[in-house]
Amino acid sequence: MKIRALRVFALFILLALIALPAKAEHITIVTEHLPPYNFLEDGEALGMSTEVVQAALDAAGHTYEIRFMPWARAYQIALTKPNTLVYSIARTTEREALFAWVGEIAPFGASLYQRADQPVIKLSELSDARLLQVGVYRGDAKEAVLRKNGFQNLQTTEDDHLNLRKLMLGRIDLIAIDDSVIGPLLAEEGIASNKVRRTLGIDEVSGHLYMAFHKETDPDLVISVQRGLELIKENGQYEQILNQYLLIN
Fold it and tell me: In the predicted model, is pLDDT for residue 249 greater than 50?
């Protein structure tokens, strides 16, 4: 009986050690201003994706610092600095090998939008819009997808507010923007939601947004954050966070 008890005790210790999180680390996180996913308010990092990332890192036992900056800069930092975490990032074929992907943090969709007071732009597929003037966020996955699909008339900016203003002034025909961003953006600009019309979804960048590490990040660190994300999905915290935010379809 003593031998059996010792074996059970040894197994318990082994399982406890396996369950322990990786050594706690301080993680630098980079992101952009993208309501309702990630944004700063009175110096506090908020948003649907932000809350999910924070909950996952808290569950994994890591400390962190979130830095907000233009997307092109955040993306470049995540490409070049190990142990850097970036969110909310679309997981595309072109990006697959560039990062160590942690997991899905929020549902996501993107579409082409036009002014509602203009004749309806009828699009059956993405290529139908190639000859139109389209405003897009520089360095974003939507820009990459449109260029891959032969778009040569893209007008890029580092601020979706500028794209929306150009659309309302008639300087461009369409804007490519996240479906969950267009509502808050219209509200910030003081534009009624019925002033724009959704014309076509951009399927290649619709699905989910992710968080991801620089590809050479310590694998144990990546795994620990993956476990943190899995834990908040299992205990219902993830769903509770999502339910606080209304996605615009």
Answer: no
Task: Please check whether residue 185 is in contact with residue 160, taking contact to mean a CB–CB distance below 8 angstroms.
Answer: yes
Q: C-alpha distances in angstroms, 39 versus 3, 34, 200, 206, 217?
A: 58, 6, 26, 21, 25
Cβ-proximal residues to 174 (8 Å cutoff; 6+ apart), any chain: 112, 113, 114, 121, 129, 132, 133, 134, 135, 167, 199
Residues 109 and 200 sit within 8 Å (Cβ to Cβ)? no
Strand, helix or coil for residue 88: strand
What is the distance between the alpha carbons of residues 195 and 118, in angstroms, rounded to a whole number? 10
Torsion, Cα of 57, 225, 74, 145 (10° steps): -130
**Structure confidence by residue, pLDDT tens digits, 10-19:** 444 444 434 4
Q: Is the dihedral of CA 130, 131, 137, 139 positive or negative?
A: positive
Task: Encode pLDDT of 126-154 as tens digits.
Answer: 999 999 999 999 988 899 999 999 999 99
Cβ of 112: how many Cβ atoms within 10 Å? 26
CA angle 189, 37, 92 (to 5 degrees): 110
Whole-model pTM above 0.85?
Answer: no
Helix, strand, or coil (residue 220): helix
d(CA 151, CA 145): 9
For residue 192, the tally of other CB atoms under 10 A from its CB is 9
All residues at 6 or more sequence positions from 216 whose CB lies less than 8 Å from its CB, including other chains: 82, 100
pLDDT in tens, 64-86: 999 999 999 999 999 999 899 99
- Which residue intervals of 156-212 are DSSP H helices? 160-168, 179-189
